[in-house]
Amino acid sequence: MSGIVKLLAGLALGVALSAPAPAADVTVFAASSLTDALTEIGKSYQQKTGHTAAISFAASSVLARQIESSEGVDIFVSADPDWMDYLQKRGLIQPGTRHNLLASHLVLIAPADSKISLRIAPHFDVAGALAGGRLAVADPESVPAGKYAKASLTALGVWDRVAMHLVPAENVRVALAYVAHGEAPLGIVYTTDAIAEPKVRAIGTFPDNIHPSIVYPVALTKEAKPLAHEFLAYVEGPEARAIFRKKGFEVPR
What we know:
By secondary structure, this protein is of the alpha/beta class. 41% of the residues lie in helices and 20% in strands. It has helices at residues 3-17, 35-49, 60-69, 81-89, 126-130, 144-155, 159-162, 172-180, 191-196, 227-235, 238-246; strands spanning 26-31, 53-58, 75-77, 99-103, 106-111, 135-138, 166-169, 186-190, 200-205, 215-220.
């Protein structure tokens, strides 16, 4: 692993572990795949309302565990229902505020200048296409994008062939960086990640029916400040929905 990608990996994990800006009006923890969209939405929210949102991005697993062990977070946006369930079972979110905010898809990516060509289908030769390299995925044991990747590869009958050739990442954006910087010949990320990074190209999209539905539940935490309702309403409003769509997310009606 190069020094560049090690630095990216460290930064990606460190964002969630550092304390949110104390001067912010609202504190948000969000899955790393939402980085571009929610950063832009946060700026738009401030311009419109004068209020500020401190948004930390990391793997949903890391964020959920930090919410469990500390205080001061108002809103959580997870990349799968499991980690929202984790907090809900522990009484750490306001159940009446929970709903699915967004949806997405899973893609196989390669560096933009790669000549690799594959058709995603049962028993496709992804292991052969690696040619001795590694498949970049978010940690399949805990991170939503990695869990979706494992489910997809298992359903297609190729997981056993590639399981020993993975480079697991702290979150999906680090997996994206491995491929973008040439550290891995192939990776599995969300459609929105591939759109955000010009140094990669999507080879194909995994069928939606071979993995759990990719949805992003959002909820206020148990101790959310009153102003958190305003930010959540803004995230659900027309300006934010337009930004989400621009970044490639599906926005349920």
